[in-house]
Amino acid sequence: MRFMATYDFMETMRNTNQWLGASALALGSYPAMSMVPNPAIQWLAAWGQVTERSFARMGAKPDWGIQSVVGEDGRDHIVDIEVEVSKAFGDLIHFKVQGRKEMPRKVLLVAPMSGHYATLLRSTVVSLLPDCELYITDWHNARDIPVSEGKFDVEDYTLYLVDFMKHLGPQIHVIAVCQPAPLTLAATAYLAEEDPKAQPRSLTLIGGPIDPDATPTEVTDFGNRITMGQLEQSMIQRVGYKYKGVGRKVYPGLLQLSSFIAMNSESHTKAFKDQINRVAKGEASDHDKHNKFYDEYLAVMDMTAEFYLSTVERVFKGLEIANNEFVVAGKRIDIGKITDVAVKTVEGENDDISAPGQCVAALDLCTGLPDSKKAWHLEPGAGHYGIFAGKSWRNNIRPLVLDFIDANSGPRVVAGKDTARPSAAAKAKTKAAG
Questions:
Q1: If pLDDT is split at 50, 70 and 90, which confidence band does 412 have?
Q2: Tens of pLDDT, residues 4-25
Q3: Which string of DSSP letters, residue by residue, matches 66-134?
Q4: For residue 261, with 0-12 CB atoms within 10 Å meaning exposed, 13-18 middle and 19 or more buried, which class applies?
Q5: CA angle 87, 91, 97 (to 5 degrees)
Q6: Confidence (pLDDT) at 3
Q7: What separation in angstroms does the CA of 76 have from each of 64, 69, 119, 128, 133?
Q8: Angle formed at CA 84 by CA 80 and CA 87, multiple of 5 degrees
Q9: pLDDT tens-digit readout, 92-151
Q10: For residue 148, what are the CA distances in angstroms to 62, 152, 245?
Q11: Where would a tag sit more exposed on the chain, N or C end, judged by fewer CB atoms within 10 A?
């Protein structure tokens, strides 16, 4: 009961601030207020508009907002977002482009489950959609999942990825962004032993904590400083009465957001002050740079308690992936069993979340993979966000990833049979793509 009251208190505070913002906007917008020009009234309305919008976004899932894509024929093609596989804790969705023949590049984009919705990768999706048949993992907000659906931890997450890969078939190329990188690597290794023919053609890991201790950051240091008991007591709450998941233990999105903002409180405070001033001066717009960023940044989702705690305990503290000791459903996963899936890692030089060295560690774990099928890239001057959605991604990393996919789309060896052996030219292109 205590944890449910805390969860409901946070939601009450969010609703109250949203109401205060809406009230201030309404009060400051009355025509009668304009009879006596007063900058304070304009500022009040501006504060209300920014406040109401900000707190409203915290409780809503953003829309993908992808209406169409330009095809090779130069025409706009409508994009339908279809649920390919539906599961309790997450769906596999397909960005189906109407009137366009199926693209030869078939890509599964694995979105993080780290506090934000899959729409955080909207710009990544937009950049890949013209050149790929694109699928993405769309994780659900834990507050909306009834307790009757059971638990969901790192092992369940890994098995979800296994099912999604099996469904899409062996022609798929997988790109994992940030948090899911180690579990995607584990899912691929799981398939290497259990169902080799279902393995993807290639695996691109972008800014993920394969070995968090390779280059410690504030994020990994926090995980080492606090005990699991302290973490559970301070971070875990039960969903309140407002949502379908009432009673489920979660790491609340609002609590995560407070941590995100606290890490860069000065820059966030300045951003909101500047936006209020722009609104007061009539210089802001509905889809300006501030709103475009914060509409997504403030939209947070709850994670199941078992997923959050098992991630910290097993990936960050126990280093089960880094030490090749990860266990799924009672079976130890041997990453060295990956022998014919090309693996590429991408890191940002200035990444303060998954610092350089953490992700490239995956290549050392792939002891059964020849060097010709390994590639890596360190993007100079890029931060965490930039390596999958910023200018660095668009201008430098995306072309390298597509080249890597193309270089590994041909024949390869599965279970000793030559079903798709890469040519010498393809191998050379793979090394060049790194």
A1: low
A2: 678 888 899 999 999 999 999 9
A3: --EEE-TTS-EEEEEEEEEEE-SSEEEEEEEETT-PPPS-EEEEE---SSB-GGGGHHHHHHHTTTSEE
A4: middle
A5: 140
A6: 61
A7: 17, 5, 22, 16, 16
A8: 130
A9: 999 999 989 889 999 999 999 988 999 999 999 999 999 999 999 999 999 999 999 999
A10: 26, 12, 9
A11: N
pLDDT digits (tens, 9 = 90+) for 215-240: 887 777 776 778 888 888 888 999 98
Tokens of 214: 């390779």
Both tokens of 58, joined, read: 């915290």
Sign for the pseudo-dihedral over CA of 95, 96, 97, 98: negative
Cα distance between the two ends of the chain:
53
Best CATH choice for the domain 69-228+303-408 from the list 3.40.50.1820, 3.40.190.10, 3.90.1030.10, 1.10.40.30: 3.40.50.1820
- Give the residue from 350, 361, 347 showing the smallest Cα distance to 319: 361
Alpha carbons 378 and 203: distance in angstroms, whole number: 16
Q: What is the DSSP letter of 62?
A: P
Q: How many residues does the chain have?
A: 434
H or E element, residue 259:
helix 253-263
Domain ranges of the chain: 1-58+264-298, 69-228+303-408
Whether the predicted model's global pTM rises above the 0.85 cut: yes
Dump pLDDT digits (tens) for 380-391.
999 988 999 888
Q: Which amino acid is at 87?
A: K
Paired with 345 in beta bridges are 205, 376
Task: Give whole-number Cα distances, 88 to 80, 155, 179, 394, 408, in Å.
Answer: 22, 15, 20, 33, 33
Crossing angle, helix 2-28 and helix 253-263, to 10 degrees?
70
- How far are the Cα atoms of 53, 57, 89, 382 from residue 121, in angstroms, in the given order? 21, 17, 19, 17
Q: What is the mean pLDDT of the chain?
A: 89
Hey, is 287 helix, strand or coil?
A: coil
CA 188, CA 194: separation in Å to the nearest integer? 10
Identify the bridge partners of residue 109 per DSSP, sorted by sequence position: 136, 175
